[in-house]
Amino acid sequence: MVVGDIATGTDVLVIGAGPGGYVAAIRAGQLDLDVTLVEKEAYGGSCLNHGCIPSKAMITAADVAHEAGNAEEMGVHADPAVDLAKMVEWKDGVVDQLTSGVEKLNKGNGVNLIEGRAEFADENSVRVAHGGEGQGSETVEFEHAIIATGSRPIEIPGFSFDDEPVLSSRDALALDSLPDSMVVVGAGYIGMELSTVFAKLGTDVTVVEMLDDVLPGYEDDVKRIVRKRAESLGIDFRFGRTASGWEEADDGIRVATEAMEEEAAAEADGGSEARSASDESSGDEPRGATETFDADKVLVAVGRQPVTDTLNLEAAGIEPNDDGFIETDDRARTEKEHIFAVGDVAGEPMLAHKGSKEGEVAAEVIAGEPAALDYQAIPAAVFTDPEVGTVGLTEAEAEEAGFSPVVGQFPFRASGRALTTGDSEGFVRVVADEDSGFVLGAQIVGPEASELVAEIGLAIEMGATLEDVASTVHTHPTLAEGVMEACENALGHAIHTLNR
Amino acid sequence: MVREFKLPDVGEGVSEGEIVQWLVDEGDAVEEDQPVAEVETDKAIVEVPSPVDGTVRDINAEEGEVVAVGSVIITFNVEGEAEEPAEASGDANEPDEPAADPAGDAGSETAVDADEAVETPEGRVFAAPSARRLARELGVDIAAVEGSGPSGRVTEGDVRAAAEGGDDVAEPEPAATGTAAGGADDSAAAEADAGAESASAGTTGAAGGTAASVGSADRDRTLAAPATRKLAEEEGVDLNAVPATEERDGQPFVTPEAVREYAGAQQEAQRADTEALARREEPAEREVREPYRGVRKSIGDQMEKSKYTAPHITHHDTVDVTELVETRERLKGEAEDRGIRLTYMPLVMKAVTAALKEFPVVNASLDEENEEVVKKQYYNIGVATATDAGLMVPVVDDVDRKGLLQIASEMNEKVQKARDRSISIDEMQGGTFTITNIGGIGGEYATPIINYPEVAILALGTIEQRPVVEDGEVVARHTLPLSLSADHRIVDGADAARFTNRVKEYLKQPELLLLE
Fold it and tell me: N or C: which end of chain A has fewer CB within 10 A?
């Protein structure tokens, strides 16, 4: 403690006001705990300010523009003009509304808000440095702390986010004019979502990915549909390549890439032997061969890393693991009984909804409630075109876990509602245990997959069987009927598809 | 066709019940509405009726077992239908569906028999989040709970049942058998340890007693030769405890002979104690453990809730009831002629009701949620009744509107039903004030616990002749000690005293009740 400094005391100190931190703070406030929330930048964290919300806003706007311009089949002729600055302004309005809402909710639940960057002074206090010159700092002593500092985009050698043509996902969502061309490094979900946005708005997009397909971790048929649609939007994929650097060129920049060595690529792919046969760009060129791409901007979206290096964790007696994550138990507790970690800092998957749930649990545990992280599955969604929504186990994972999986599938081309939206590519796949009928997972790729997957999430948590879902009357005509039909298909009595 | 019968929700807030007695056996024919079991819930025993005409196929719970509401306790074969269980669970959902429907057949192939135990890979437990939370609340390891839901899903009822009867929790699957056996060994070892501990404690205590009997001197200072001190040390004897045979310079002096004699006596005493201990019963039987559940637990829960929710104050007083005793003597014969036994209780109920009308705050409850004091304009008086199973409180409704004999008759009937356990839950609900009579057993004052959410309870001591000072003379009068506990959140001490004073007036001059 600084001499002359008076420490403030609090029951619960929450560091970071993202979806993990602000939810924890609100819940702790609801449980009559004295809560202090420290945020260095903006309420809502990456999710509201630089991630989920702004990207989804931009995706929606890009969809509107793209669909309006591609609806001749439905007899609609339009030639939409995109004003990116206006679009970003609208997006910022959405973000402002949400972040101010978060601030109000915190205040309304009695949460003390402090702006500044917190770092541990010892196991029971933090030093909060206020932003700006001469703003000083203060000490906050706590009974319990919840670390929710989230994550930041990973930089790669040769590409500094400080350089103007190099964009992080955050920068890409704040552009005031549309680049004519863009190289996107990384075909994970962030790279794919933003590639889709810019392609739909009219930018020439080239995606450079060191693996041999998009969306690592997803099943091949899911990847294929997303990749094909991206290609049809004009996105050019260069698989099996890494980006090595960039330089100013006559009219923009030139991004240099290198072909991956086969072994290295295989290793990076988690040792997967299955290679996409349709990938033409990754196979035959000489190892280490360089190729350059001209563009206006380069977007680096190779992943995110937890923000644990600014916290002086050592003072709290906590050591992050090799990947920088703080390890926690099923109560969201760190190795220190009174310090919790939630959200991206607490490990994969780095998803806002996982962080929020962990935040709730941490607050409840502190309040003495019998809470625990005992969910069976965390859903995930990719807002590409078409969307991907997954939850629980794939067929292979179910088999590996010792179940006898049975799979039911329903193609959206058999869905009346999908056809009426003009978007009928993709499928709903449900995985269940054949012996018991318990629903174990779903992979959905297609329109509104991010929404549809929620039903299977509920089914998994409730221990529902295929019969339970199949026997639930679904509204017609909706996309959700596809979930019911997939379950019926698994039971061998689907109506609108031929049973296998 | 087999019809499963689940323990129904037999009363407000009842989540489980104990099967007291089966009234049928497997194979018995039953008719619809015929009682098949007696189930003890909350504070009553209820009879569970058969929902169908048929025969009893399986009885799934043993007498004495606590079962959760919603769990299947008995199955019936329904007359006129197939004896075997339906194969497809889907059939039950769509009884009108023609059997020839190919889709239906396909469905039945994958349908799962709910009774079939499902082995879950990776120890994964299928249960809703609410059931998981409940398990954590009750400290139940959900992985060890056998599920009774579809395909073996663990329901909240299963979790409650597991929490209630620790023994009922499903044993872990084969791999864990060794562990279970190990657990048994551990507990046996623990018991043995406990036994050893209490044995040694016993020895110490007994030895102390014996030493005293041989005359432990227990002085502060004792003179002795160095050799004698050494001897005492060797024999493990405290020199100050050895009876002194001589004195030196006015101080007790101990000789080596005295030390040897004392040490010998002590060893003898110890041996005797050890033998006595060996003859004693096994320590395991020193205490008897009984399950804390059913009515006993309901009473406990209710008392705990009352005591820790309503801050109790108890006001004590004594009233001269000589006239009441005489009045009751006169009326008793009249009542008997009409076949009704008249005790003091109906008279007290009348007096209390009259006083409640004047002090509405005592005939009230606190609606905590809405932050309102609810003053009741009806007078339902509970009569706390000791039964073999524990305390029950039958309620006589609308005492203000009923005559003394009707009150006596109703109360007698309900008290008897409480004692023979045939009272229903609704006959014990809706009370606005409770009277408890400890005097019947003996005693004067008590601190009765309020029958929450009521706000007051009156305890009656024994009516007997006690000395009373009248006009400066001590005379023998029949007196009744009164103890009124009240919820101090809304009843102040002054209210309690004024109310009790009013009750006293009615009891002292029972003819005042004629004005009521």
Answer: C
Q: Is the link from the previous residue into A386 a cis peptide, with omega within 30 of 0? A: yes
CA angle at A330 for the pair A327 and A334, rounded to the nearest 5° = 35
Give the model's confidence band at B201: pLDDT under 50 very low, under 70 low, under 90 confident, else very high. Answer: very low
Of A370, A471, A491, the CB nearest to B110: A491
What are the strands, taking DSSP E only, across A148-201? 151-153, 166-167, 181-185
Catalytic residues of B, by residue number, are 488
* Nearest chain A residue (CA) to B94: A471
**Among candidates B120, B129, B151 on the partner chain, residue whose Cβ is nearest the Cβ of A437:** B151
Q: Which of A60-74, B15-29, B106-120 has the lowest mean pLDDT?
A: B106-120
Q: For residue A399, what is the enclosing H or E element? A: helix A395-400
3-class DSSP state of A127: strand
Q: Given the structure tokens 């649990």, which residue do they identify?
A: A361
Residue A319 burial (CB count, 10 A): 12
Cβ atoms of residues A370 and A383 within 8 Å = no
Secondary structure percentages of chain A, helix, strand, coil, to 5: 35, 25, 40
What does the alpha-carbon distance between residue A420 and residue A318 come to, in Å, rounded to a whole number?
A: 55
What is the rounded distance in angstroms from the CA atom of residue B258 to the CA atom of residue B481? 62
Alpha helices in A202-318 (DSSP H): 220-232, 262-268, 313-316
CA dist., res. A95 & res. A48, Å (int): 6
Are B148 and B109 contacting, i.e. CB atoms less than 8 angstroms apart?
no
* Distance of alpha carbon A105 from alpha carbon A183, whole angstroms: 40
How long is chain B? 516
CB contact under 8 A, B122 and A401: yes
ipTM of the complex in this document: 0.78
**In Å, how far is B136's CA from the nearest CA of chain A?**
6
Average pLDDT for A96-119: 95
Closest CA to B50 of B21, B80, B76: B76
Q: Do A492 and B132 touch (CB under 8 A)?
A: no
DSSP H or E run through B235: helix B226-235
A272: left (phi over 0), alpha (psi -120 to 50) or beta: beta
A165 in Cβ contact with A252 (< 8 Å): yes
pLDDT on residue A344: 97
- Tell me, what's the pLDDT at B445? 92
Q: Residue B117's closest chain A neighbor by CA?
A: A436
A227 close to A213: Cβ distance less than 8 angstroms: yes
- Indicate left, alpha or beta for B151 from its phi (over 0: left) and psi (-120 to 50: alpha): left
* Separation of alpha carbons B2 and A131, rounded Å: 73
Q: Residue B262 CA to chain centroid, in angstroms?
A: 52
At residue B93, the pLDDT reads 38
Count other C-beta atoms under 10 Å from residue B393's C-beta: 25
- Does A401 contact chain B (CB < 8 Å)? yes
Dig out the tokens for A11 from the structure: 């029951």
- Tell me the residues of B at the A interface, defined by beta carbons under 8 Å apart: 89-90, 93, 103-104, 106-107, 109-112, 118-122, 124, 126-129, 132-133, 136-137, 149-154
- What residue type is assigned to position B325 of the chain? V
What pTM value is reported for the model? 0.56
State the average pLDDT for chain B: 78
Residue A493: list chain B partners with CB under 8 A.
103-104, 106-107
Quote the CA–CA distance of B40 and B296 in Å, as a whole number: 11
The Cα of A405 is separated from the nearest Cα of chain B by a number of Å equal to 11
Segment B450-476 mean pLDDT: 93
What band does B2 get if pLDDT is binned at 50, 70 and 90?
confident
Amino acid at A186: G
Using one digit for the tens of pLDDT, what is the confidence trace for A423-438? 999 999 999 999 999 9
Question: pLDDT-derived band of residue B281, with 50, 70 and 90 as boundaries?
Answer: low
What's the maximum distance between 2 C-alpha atoms anywhere in chain B?
Answer: 118
